[in-house]
Amino acid sequence: MRNKNVWLVTLGILLIIGVGIFSFQYENPDSDTADPEEGLQNESQEETNIEKQKNPNGNEHFSVQHTEYPGEVTPDFSPEELIEPPSGNWLTNGGNIYNGRYSPLSKIDTSNVSDLKAEWITSMGTGLKFKYSGEATPLVYDGVMFNVTGENHVAAIDAKTGEFIWEYKPKLPEGLDTLCCGWVNRGVALGDGKVFVGLLDARLVALDQKTGEVLWETVVDEWEKGYTITSAPLFYDGKVYTGIAGGEYGIRGYVAAYDANIGRQVWRTYTLPEPGAKGSETWPEDSENWLTGGAPVWQTPAVDPELGLIYFATGNTAPDLDGSNRKGDNLYTDSVMALNADTGDYEWHFQEVHHDIWDYDPANPVVLYDVKMNGETKKGIAQAGKTGWVYLLDRTNGKPLVGIEEKPVPQNKNQKTSPTQPFPIGDSFVPQEITEEDIERDLPKEFNGKFGNIFTPFWDEPVTVKPSPQGGANWPPSAYNPNTELFYVLGNDNYFSYAHYAEDEENKFEVGKEWLGSIWQPVEKSPSRGTVTAIDIKTNKIVWQNDWDTIAYSGILTTAGNLIFTGHNDGRIIAYDATNGEKVWQFKTDAGANAPPITYKVDGKQYISIFSAGNSLAGTQHGDKIYTFSLEGKYGSLEDIPEEDITVSPAKEEMDFNQGKQEDKNEVSVDEGLKVYENNCLSCHGAEGAGGHNGPNLQDLNMNKEQIIQQIKNGGGNMPGFEDGLTEEEIEAVTEYIRSLSEEEG
Ligand code: HEC
């Protein structure tokens, strides 16, 4: 009856503050247990949270210091310092608080980049199991690098040598299972002598920058209800900002700001308006959608200190794929938003997809840029959508800078589709339709079904469309280079089918359970492709584009050396000429290069670095290493690197305490199979074999036991083979588990 309590609490708040004054609700996170009036008062909120710091929820963690901290610790950065392009350090997830991932460093340039060699390689020692993904952008300050693995293990590393300084690893709760899309962490934040990390179980933790000791720990939310943290927090103006993930679990999204000193919540702004507030008219009246409608914020925000605004994009509507019970535009889902950074007050929003039924949420971090257009300097904000368009807006007011047209789109009564959708002027960076030629070339002869384009609705009859819910652009961050005035974006291009459940039963909201509302799946035996695209920021037109034969799932760094760097699923880190896209350098690492590269400088030397650790959704080879390159590096290829030259975490053994230790039991049981499934298959195939993000439904399999075993061993299509990764017993166990899914279905 949680919902009812929140209703009562909110009713209390509304009566006291008066309806309609605030467009968003400020609420004590504990409000469903608190007295209604307490929820309003800041003081009582302080007490609750300070209590939690003293006793950080009884959570165990591991932390160890190996060597003395060699550098200075971070100050309480001024806005001016955080707005500077990163010319030595890499201070925030996006390089600076504009999120542009542009560095003015130019020692490494198009003329000498071919001499770039690996200088040091460091093995983090965690996050190797298949369910983990390495998506972190490392940060660097005064010669020290900070990195985090999918297992939430944070390390401070000497940025010149790759040696470990300290390590921290939290114990994550047993049974944590509300992660739709792999166990990931996109990075830490730095400031005021602290390292901030958001944990998968929705805790926010501050570590001492010198020692890795826990300074404070705050429970942001309850993972059991589907709230998790995968994004890097942002440090700005003495506060730590974090959003929340969980759009697939029927959550109520928000961004919250915490006092960087003590972890007390300063404000929290929900992205779903309460009944009566501005935006609530875009939902059915008298519904509880405002409590379960999604709109998570799962990327690191950007800030414009001059305007005093914080910017981010919101995730999908819940349930993702069924619009039948949520007539209207469903604000503020799928939107770029601006709030007052001090107070969290709403400033403006721009919705990219009205009444989303395809999971086309803007997953890519927003990027701020300043550019002269028609003789006038414009303050821009760019967001690369899953739709395949870049949305270019004026960040002072949210109005289109290049032009975005509302156009009529195909309708479906059952889905209560929006009559129009926004179509940005300019080029899309991935295909948005399926042509006869595509069908002929890409799809198996036996595949027959209805095809559609972007915004084609679906109901009972399956429809296959492009782009897929993977995008377009997904989380892998884009970059903007002020010299080329080009915006660089990675795109995914694959075939996905959607259909509404025949049974209404499947469409019920249950707290903490995945809630898609319909079925989606990739088309079996169809190719996945990717694009690396440079877009003219003034016209939104493509200047150059490189096509890949896999999804592009890493992130982009651009530099004043006229370069861009990005990672490839096959393990390569690749450099292109920023002006024309010509490939100028590559190095193959030992795992999927599925995280964004960075650059930094220590003692006058420029380095390029990438955390190459593989990805469960992309199905790439897993690893745990940071590769750092320089013009004075020694190793031209992986084969040149002797095992003993790789720095290994000295605490590797001690840290191996999180769930999922390999147990060697002979007994084969469905329970064990479930464990293997959760660790290796769930992110793609979904809970209980349905609703996964990159694999077909496994509940009505037409395969015998031997065929299933062969599929698991060899993979195929976009599924990796597990012959080397799993034992015979584990393969047997997971096969039994999968067979049990179809039996239950009858
Ligand atoms: C990276 C995503 C991914 C992961 C991880 C993954 N799969 Fe798959 N799986 C797929 C895709 C995509 C297909 C369809 C393959 C094709 O195109 O033919 C598939 C197909 C299958 C099939 C055949 C389904 C059919 O109807 O033909 C089975 C069975 C299966 N997977 C089981 C598993 C098991 C068990 C695991 C874990 C050990 C696993 N998968 C891990 C993506 C994945």
N-C termini distance:
33 Å
Enumerate the distinct ligands: heme C
**What is the structural class?**
alpha+beta
Describe the biggest sheet?
A: 5 strands, antiparallel
Major β-sheet strand ordering: 1-7-6-5-4
**What is the averaged pLDDT score?**
89
Q: In CATH, what is the class of the largest domain?
A: Mainly Beta
Strand elements, count = 40
Number of domains: 3
Put simply, the count of helices is: 9
CATH topology descriptor of the largest domain: Methanol Dehydrogenase, Chain A
* Portion in strands: 25-35%
Which regions have little confidence, pLDDT < 50, spanning 5+ residues?
1-56, 660-667
Protein model, in words:
It is built from 9 helices and 40 strands. The longest helix has 18 residues, at 728-745. The strands form 10 sheets. Strands 1-7-6-5-4 form a 5-stranded antiparallel beta sheet, with no helix packed on it. A 5-stranded mixed beta sheet has the order 2-33-34-35-36, with no helix packed on it. The chain is of the alpha+beta class and 746 residues long. The chain folds into 3 domains: 2-55, no CATH class; 63-648, 8 Propeller (Methanol Dehydrogenase, Chain A), CATH 2.140.10.10; 670-745, Cytochrome c-like domain (Cytochrome Bc1 Complex, Chain D, domain 2, Orthogonal Bundle).
